[in-house]
Every structure is written in structure tokens, then in C-alpha cells.
């Protein structure tokens, strides 16, 4: 047999060789089964041994060797069944156990030994722990990596239910205990990882010295892939360990994990160590990980500097988050997850930045812990700090005093042992880190952004970082970062270094995600952003992959905290670190999405102002591009090429319409507050950001409805009837449905006035009726005069309304040509709100609003102008007439009679000019209600004029198309309606005339069924009215009908 990987067999050669092995296996299996039927144990073992000899090959890759192994494994189950039945072979197990050890080849010998030993344990002739130990020692005879791994995998498979676990039958028989079961699995695990680690060594020895470098590289990669193909064989040991009944939390902490880590530390192979760590995290329970976080994290940190700790931490953090979510976000009080992870993440961040910068970093990310649950406070200067020693390792500073938390002290394993520090650790005094020579001044704002960059108490100076040692990373200013980013492509970033940073950011993302799910305190959660800010300050964010991870981290807190995420330390610095336009656009839209989905809808004007200042560039993005194109025409070709290139962020959906939908939802959220001052100021602030951009047309309807709702809210404010002394203590206004409910809004911002009072003095009344008399009764005129503050407040609200109406009028005029139908409806809705607001003005003598009737008139005439200039489609024109008619009839009472009649006349004229006679008839029929429904403007003669015009148009329409006969049916319905309403101009003769026309149509053979049904309903209605009252007594009906 040739040694492992001697021959560079192709896939075809290995497949051919495998087929030959399978043929032999099937042949020997056939003879073995014949011997089993004959009851011949000797022949059975002989053919089984011949079959197992095929596993001695070294010419198969792990993939094909596993296929061969599984075929033989299935055939050996027949042998196992035969040996387990003592009645068939009539031999003692001790004799069989000794006889199989005389097999000529070691591979068949050990496989047969394991099968017999498994049944020997089951028979309980000897203690299980002795047989297991014996088989484990004998398996050491196979030192070939691939064959040895499969042999030990076979041992675990066959004996996994024969170990003396807690509560098993083999423990009760005195065969051992949980310690023996664990030692058996641990021994096999240790031997397996030793064999596994030697697989790559065999490659290095066998490679020819004169091979081409590329061939050498390809061969090594191939073998490394094959090496990872067998990881399941090793991981099976850990899986079985985790399934032990005796593997309690305490046993795992005291014995299992320490021994696993000790064995793992003897293997100097980062791939193996990483897989084992990930397996430990995945297979053992979450409760075990919660109580051994410090041990596990310290082991990951110290065991191998080349270990890919990031994948391990990501897996661990996800497991912990799932566990916490499944347990209602409860964490054991004695475990401080934040502190344990944060101390190690600081080290990992600096290690990652060292690899990214090539060891030339110049900024210190420091952590101070002084009796606080969470680190990351600014380092304060003082005499106490000068006396207290601080450990500075890499870029982390940890107090040498005992660290305590709010719940319990962090002692013992929770502390970082000074003997385990990295080689570049040193002990310094606080004063040493307090200041540096060559400091230069920094503004207060920059100091807030830079957070922990300087630890110098009240001093606002930045250190001269030129002489800082390796492992200390500087936060660059925006100008310096832009210079680094501009030259980043020239220097050529190391892909591996970028990948490391990306993974580190993924770890931080999971850490922040975990902490958000655990801690409810906004202030606590927002301390988490020092880590990503440090990375963002030291890497090239023009790299799309890096920038995407930073964006994910920035957006995450907005999903759970909403606008409160802006309170986070260094959050503003993180936002400012994203400078590229496409990245900034993606971030802005993602933040909007997150705020929309967030359940925490707390709205504060300051937070809204900050987030709008950041995302404002997307409001005017297209305008800027047009300006740039006008200034520099030669950029157009370059821009077109950029558009055609594949965009990493895939923003194809981010068209103006798509983005506008998100912004409308976002606007509804940021204005979702009961504070009138705050809502008004937010609306005006939002408008300032969009007024010159391409989104105005899309967002204006949303803004108009929100502002009109604000006016309605002010209109529905109703003062209570309490006495003056009571006003000073209680609510001066009451809410009809929730009189005992208080509204608490702590922050109010007014661009014009800033009162010391809050809106807690006002609550809302949602009045369900539109009767002006009811409103007037609820407003005692002299009540507000008793309180000067309330009077000033209402005057301020009155000013808001004036500004809102001016805003609506100006902006709707500017967009009416682009959205005529929508602008028309918004004008009409505004007219209704203005009409209702007049009741509020009349209820308070100290309020004045000049020309309110003229404003209402303007809001109604503008739709008519839009109708004339911008609406040309006949169906839309008819809809507009119906809309305006409905508004005038149902809601408008403010207009003077002359103005009202002018509008009604103009509307009737437009209806009479519609394209189709049918539409003319129906339009004028609708306009007849303008002169009747509103008692203030009722005119019976005008109603009759409209009805007569309708009859003329109906007669003309029927002449062109007999299907229009249904118009007479509609006219009959209206005549009956006005006749019943006692319109003196509508006589019985008119009703009788229409009844006669409709009856003639009804009598025709080919009359439309729908016409017949409608006519019968009218006739039945008139008949019922004739019997119940004298109103229709003079109207005759055909008895036959």
C-alpha cells in the first residue's frame, strides 16, 4: 500500500479504484452472509476481515473513502446482529474478543474488535469502562490520519449507547460513571484531533521540491479542502459529549470545558482550533455558555494569534441572543455579559486594526472600569487617578482595582489576569495617559464626537499621536480620512485585511444586537458604539464591503430605539463617517426604514432635527446632479458610465417614487405627537429640507393633510367650565372621551416663542358632530380671558393656523399643474377645515383672523381654476363637479351669499359644458343640490332651473342613443326627492310627466331589466307614501304597474 496522497489521482482514477473496492466488498459480503446462515463464526469473521481489508487503501480522498466506509458499515450490521445472539454462535464473548485480535491485518482486527467489544459490554460479563479503555488504547495502533479518523469514528458510532452514562444500565451494573464515560469520549477526541492535525503535514512532506509554485499552491489548497471534509468525524465526539445525561452545567464548568481547552491548546493548527471552538459553541447548551463566557473568551483570545476568532464570536453571540429571546430576555444576575464581551472586543478590535494598518495604527481605544456596570465613560483627570494604576494593553485600559457591577462584583475569572496579557502590555499611571506633548486644540463638538480619544478631564485638547506605539490607533479627522480614502486605491488594500475588518464589524453587530435585546436602558445601549466608531475612524470607508457593515451597525439601534438612537455616544461620529453619496443615500433610506419599523415612537424635536440634517442630502440629490451637470457638462459621460456599472448596493428600487413612499411614512411617524407646538415645528422643519428637491410633489399631499389635521386639532380644543383656582392646578381643557387622561410631552420647540409652560395644559376634544351650535355652546367666551397664559397660547395657535393656510395655498398653487386632481381635492379639503376653524375664532373674542371668509372662498375658487386650466378628460371633469358639489352642499357655511351663488353658477355652467349630454344631465342634476341642501343658501327657483335643464339634455341624449332613457328615471327620482322635501317649484305635473315617460319605456317588450327594477321601486315608494300621508295624493299611478 502506498502512503497517503502519494499518487495525484484524478477524480476518474479514484472513481475507478472505488468501483474495484466496492466489487470486492460486495463479493466478501455475500460470502459472509452465507457463513452467517450456516452459523459458522470462523468463516464469518474470515470474510468480514477480507471485506475490511479494503479500508487499508491510501489512494482514496476523504469523499470516496467515506462512501466505501458507509458501504462496509452497513454490511457489518449483519455481523453485529449475529454476534449479539449468543444462541447462534454458542461462544463466550471473552473467547471471541481474544480470537479477533489474532487477525493478520490491524485494520480488520480493530474493526472486528470494536464490534465484539460492543456486544461484550452489553452482555455485562465485565465492566464497561475496562472494555472501552482497552479498545481506545488498541485504536492507537492506527496512526494513518484518514484511516485512524474513520476507525475512531466507527468506535464512537458503535459504542455511543454502551458507555456508562448517568442513569444508564451500564452505570447501574458497576461499569463506571459519568467520569469514565467522559474520559472515553475525551480520549478519542484528543487522539482524533492529533490525527487530524497531521493530514496537512503529510502533504508538505510528499510535495516534490522542484514543482511549479502555482501547482504547489493548488495541491496544498486541495489537501486543505480534503482536510476539512473529515471535520465531522472529529465533531461527533463533541456531539456525544453534549448528549450525556451526566453533562450538567456544573460538570461542564468544572471538568468538561477546562479539559477540552487544555487538549485543544496542544494542537498548533488554527483551522482545527477554530472548528473545535465553533463546535463547542454549537453543541453544548446555552446555559453552559452563559456561565463560562469568561473562560471561553479568554481561551479564544490566548490560544492562537492566527485563529479566526470572529466566526466563533458571531456563532456564540447568535446562540446567546436566541437563548435570551426564548427566556423572555432574562439573564442571570451574576453574569455581566456586557463587561465580559466588551473587554475582549476592545482587544480584538485593536488586533484587527493592527492587521489592517500593518501595525502602524495610532489611536488608543481605552476602557475604564471604576465601580460601574458598564465601561466607556470619559476618563476624568484628578488626584485619585494619579494614584491608581491602570493597565494598558494593546489599546485597552482596565483598572487594576476590583471591578464591581450594580448586581455583583466581577472577581476571579471575570478579571483579566495581568500575567495573561499580550506582550505589548505595560503598566502606566493615569497621569501618563492623561496628556501628551504637542497637543492641539479641539472644539467641544469634536470632543464629543471623538469620545474616548482623549482622557484628559476638562481639557479639550487632542494628543499628538506621532509617537504612539504600535497597537494604538488614532481617530482621524474628516480631512485626514478623506486624504487616506483618496489614496486608498493607490496603495492597494489587502483583501485579507479588509475581510478581517468586515468580520470584526459583524461581531460588533451581533454584540450590539445582543445587548439591545437584553438591556432596556437607552443610555446603556448607546454606549456600544465606541467600537464601530474606532474602526470607522481607521479604515477606508470608500470600500463598499466595509461601508455596508458600518451601515448595518448604524441602522441596527434605530430598529429598536427609534430616534432615541441618536443619543448614543459616537453615533454622530459614525453618521459623519459615511461620506460617499451612494453610501449616504443607502444609509439614509435604511434609517428611514428602521424608524418606520421601530415600535418605539418617542418623538422629540431635537432628535428629528438631527436626523433630518443628516438625511437631507437625499431630498435634493437630483437637483445637485442637475446643477453639477450644468456647471460641468463634461461630467455627463462619466456619470453615465458610473450608472451603467454594477452597483454593489443595488439601489435600483430607490427611484424618487420608491423613496417618496418611505419618506411619507417617515413623516407620519415624526409628526405623531400630541404636542401642537412640536408637530407644527416639525412640519415646517421637514418642509425646509424638501422645498427645493424633487420629492416636494410626492410629499406635499401628506404634509397638507397632516397640517390640516393640526388645524382640526386646534379647532377641537374645548375649555372646561372649572373655576380659575382649579385651572391653575388641573387641565384647563378636557378630552371628551378621556377626561382623566393626561398628555405628557416634555419637549416643545417653537420657532417664534419659547414658553416655560408645556402642552400639558392642553388636551384634545374629538367632536363627532359638525353642528356649529354645539361647538359654540362648549366655548364660554370669557373663560380663557381668566388665564393670560392660555390666551397667549391660543393666540400662538392662531398664528400657526395662519402660517399653515398660507403654506398650503402657496405650495398647492406651485404643484397644481403637476397633480391637478389631487391639488383640487386638497384645496376643497382645506376649505372645509377653514370653514370649521371659523367656529373656533367665534368662540374666543380675543382671537382675530382677518379675511377668513376670503380665504375659504379662495380655496374653493382655486379648484374651479384648476378645472378650467389643467383637467381636460371628460370623466375627470365629471368627478370634479361631483366633488365640489358635495363639499359645497355639506360643509360650507362661511361664504357670503353672493360668493356662494357665484361659485354655484360657475359650477353649473361647467356641468352644462361637459362633453356628453348624459354627463351634462347628471352633472347639472348634482348641481341642483347646491341650491337646496344648505339652508343658508337655499333657492327653490335655481333648483327648478337645474331640473329643467336636465330634462332638455335628457331629451337630446335619448334622441342620439335610446339607452340614455335611464336619465328620465334618474330625473324622476330627483323630482320625487324635491317634491317630498316640499320644494314649491316642483309640481305634481312635472312628476306625472316623468312617470308617464318612464311607464312607456317600462311597457316596451325590449325594456332593460335594470330599468324595470328601478322603476318598480320608485312606483312602490310613491304608492307607500300615498297611503301613509297626503304628500303624494295628487300623483296618479297606473294600477297595472
Automatic annotation (TrEMBL):
Pfam families: Vps35. InterPro entries: Vps35, Vps35_C. GO terms for cellular component: cytosol; late endosome; retromer, cargo-selective complex. It is found in: Membrane. The keyword Mitochondrion does not apply. GO terms for biological process: intracellular protein transport; retrograde transport, endosome to Golgi. Its main location: membrane. Coiled coil: none annotated. Keywords: Membrane, Protein transport, Transport. Residues 450-495, 723-758 are annotated as: Disordered. It is a peripheral membrane protein. The keyword Coiled coil does not apply. Belongs to the VPS35 family. PANTHER family: VACUOLAR PROTEIN SORTING-ASSOCIATED PROTEIN 35, VACUOLAR SORTING PROTEIN 35. This is Vacuolar protein sorting-associated protein 35. It comes from Plasmodium fragile.
